[in-house]
Amino acid sequence: MTNLKIIRPPAGDGEFHAVKAVVTAAFGRADEAGLVDGLRADNAVVCELVAMRNDSILGHVLFSALGVEPAELKLAALAPVSVLPTHQREGLGTVLIEAGHDYLRQAGWDGAAVLGDPAYYGRFGFTVDAARNLSSEFSGQYYQALEFQPDALDGGPWRITYPRAFGDL
Predict the structure, then answer these.
(1) Which of 35, 25, 119 is nearest to 77 (CA)?
(2) pLDDT tens digits, residue range 21-50?
(3) Full-model pTM
């Protein structure tokens, strides 16, 4: 990751177009870029970061607030994380996810959930077992959670609802 300048929030509308291009290129389709737009429009974003090198946005991660009943927990959804195909496997996704986790932990969030490959997200501490008390439309073998606060997910059960934008995927 030579010359990585900064991990920071995108600087508003001027960079949102570049973020959209990164997300679209990373997934090879526009659906996830539409998710980012929808989460912003719904004011559901709790943490959004970009990775930059030489004044170009190379990667992006977004965490959005989850609805939790009963409302004892502050949980965020990790989705999406994107890196330009030409810069994948350089560690940018890892840096973005870890920076997002640090932000959420410091801001007092209890944990995060993700739907994805357990082998990939397990590297960050996400497990299917940690999500056992979370009931969501995405529950199943790929639904995982991570605690930011000790034993935060030991209670429950909790009903998890995702922001409206997730229904558009």
Answers:
(1) 35
(2) 999 999 999 999 999 999 999 999 999 999
(3) 0.93
